[in-house]
Write a structure and sequence with these properties.
The structure holds 2 protein chains of 2 kinds. Chain A contains 2 helices and 6 strands. By secondary structure, chain A is of the alpha+beta class. The chains are: A alpha+beta, B alpha+beta. Chains A and B meet through strand 3 and strand 5 of A and helix 1 and strand 2 of B.
Chain lengths: 93, 400
């Protein structure tokens, strides 16, 4: 853990993207209807109201309505639908 | 389960499918691990979801679903995928694109522009020739006979030395090089003779204007008239003209180098004298006087007395008496070094436009102390020059 923190500090100082260097997840929320998640480790559960994705930092949960996985492959995931809430649930990690 | 037909589209396009079973999230994760990319994944109920997958990935996904007990149903497939859907919905757009492409292809078959380069005053004549061959904007490229156009341009344009007709996309390009006689500026204007710019033996002479006074094989002196600035007219009268000629001649350049034939070495005799003085960059006190020895080696030591920033120091000169011994140098090394030095000197005199033809080297020993080498370079160069460029003394020497 300490090594990862040091690496993260080093990456920030060097101006390098952490998601590339350390493999941390990256979630980009575009408006209220689209979210892109990079570096995920698989889908834990998915229905039209909730999506739970495993990431190296814990379980990333997206709540909303009419959620669809527009693109799902490799380590990238694009979710389309009405996004109400997004956050980590550490107890599930 | 829907069946997937055999055919080319088995590898192309995409398929819409329905997955049924429990824990479909595991299927999604396993598919990702295998590199299968799913699109438009939508949950229908707790046991069902629908997704789109590339046709190439469908067999792998089917094997995955079958192995774990999930049910996979192909709902439909699209050979051209999105493009097909777009074309189906926008028929007029597709037709418009097709018509546009056909028009562009047709337009590319014609010449739409004509560009004439370098023709200067002959440009109008070039246009006349092009019109005669129908090479005008709108003409089909296939109907143009470029070699014939080029031949006609070469024949009908006396003031053009070189011409080429070519196609550059939809542009017909005619490149011309005007015919101009390259007359050096110094030959124009006033009447006058052409004289030799240096001594030599004429090897070739070409007279453009005037009357030749020398012929190949003649030895000429600097300032001597090579071509007289006069010509006989139809009435047999001599008229002054500006002589113009090219005269090439063999000329010679020499360089001499003298180097010591011996190497001197000092042998200490044991005699030694030291002298100390206060020194600054501007003066020394007391003023040092040379020792009484015939030959000596000297070594200087300086000791600062004013620190780093004050330029004052004690200077001690130590003179050591030596006897000089002269050792003869290797004769081959002398020949090589002296010849190289002499050739360097000779080449400094050779002008840039001269062509060196041959080289001679002569060696001589001077009083057993020095070795001399003289290099003579034979070159061929242009020696014709207008009279005005030669200084009066050279003209007088040549009897002008």
């Amino acid at each position: 853990m300490r090594v990862r923190k040091r690496l993260a500090q080093g990456a920030r100082l060097a101006g390098l993207p952490e998601e590339v260097l350390l493999g941390v997840p990256r979630a980009v929320l575009m408006g209220t209807e689209r979210v892109l998640i990079e570096n995920h480790k698989g889908v834990l559960s998915y229905d039209a109201d909730r999506l739970r994705v495993r990431t190296p930092c814990g379980v990333l949960q997206v709540d909303g309505a009419d959620l669809r996985l527009e693109s799902f492959g490799g380590e990238n995931l694009a979710v389309q639908g009405r996004i109400d809430r997004m956050g980590y649930r550490m107890e599930d990690a | 389960m829907g069946s997937v037909q055999d055919g080319a589209w088995r590898r192309w396009g995409s398929a819409r499918l329905q997955l049924e079973g429990l824990g479909l999230e595991k299927l999604l994760t396993r598919a990702t691990v295998q590199g299968i990319r799913l699109r438009q994944v939508a949950r229908r109920d707790i046991r069902t979801l629908r997704a789109t997958v590339r046709m190439a990935d469908l067999p792998a996904l089917q094997a995955l679903a079958q192995g774990a007990g999930w049910r996979l149903t192909v709902l439909g497939h699209s050979t051209l995928g999105r493009a097909q859907g777009l074309l189906t919905r926008r028929v007029m757009l597709a037709c418009g694109c097709a018509v546009f492409l056909v028009c562009v292809a047709a337009a590319m078959q014609c010449v739409w522009f004509v560009r004439i380069q370098g023709a200067d005053e002959s440009a109008a004549e070039v246009r006349v020739v092009l019109r005669a061959f129908g090479a005008v904007p709108g003409r089909l490229k296939a109907g143009l006979d470029l070699p014939a156009i080029q031949r006609a341009l070469e024949r009908r344009l006396p003031r053009v030395a070189w011409v080429r007709a070519r196609l550059e996309g939809v542009t017909l390009v005619v490149d011309c090089v005007p015919a101009r006689v390259a007359v050096p500026a110094q030959y124009g204007g006033e009447a006058g003779d052409v004289v030799a710019s240096r001594d030599g033996v004429v090897s070739q002479i070409t007279v453009y204007a005037g009357v030749a006074r020398v012929k190949p094989g003649d030895a000429v002196r600097r300032g001597q008239v090579l071509v007289a600035g006069q010509e006989r007219g139809a009435d047999e009268a001599l008229r002054p003209v500006a002589a113009h000629a090219s005269v090439r001649a063999k000329v010679w350049y020499s360089g001499k180098a003298v180097i010591p034939a011996t190497e001197s070495r000092g042998q200490p005799t044991g005699g030694e004298v030291s002298a100390t003085c206060v020194a600054t960059p501007w003066f020394r006190w007391p003023v040092p006087s040379p020792p009484v020895f015939a030959h000596w080696d000297v070594s200087l030591t300086r000791q600062r007395v004013g620190g780093l920033f004050l330029p004052l120091w004690l200077e001690t000169a130590r003179y050591e008496e030596v006897n000089l011994i002269y050792i003869p140098r290797d004769i081959e090394a002398l020949r090589r070094e002296s010849a190289e030095a002499a050739e360097r000197l000779a080449r400094q005199s050779v002008p840039f436009h001269a062509q060196i033809l041959d080289k001679w080297v002569e060696y001589s020993m001077i009083k057993e102390e020095h070795f001399a080498a003289e290099v003579i370079l034979e070159a061929e160069e242009e020696i014709a020059a207008p009279l005005g460029t030669i200084e009066p003394s050279a003209r007088q020497e040549a009897g002008y």
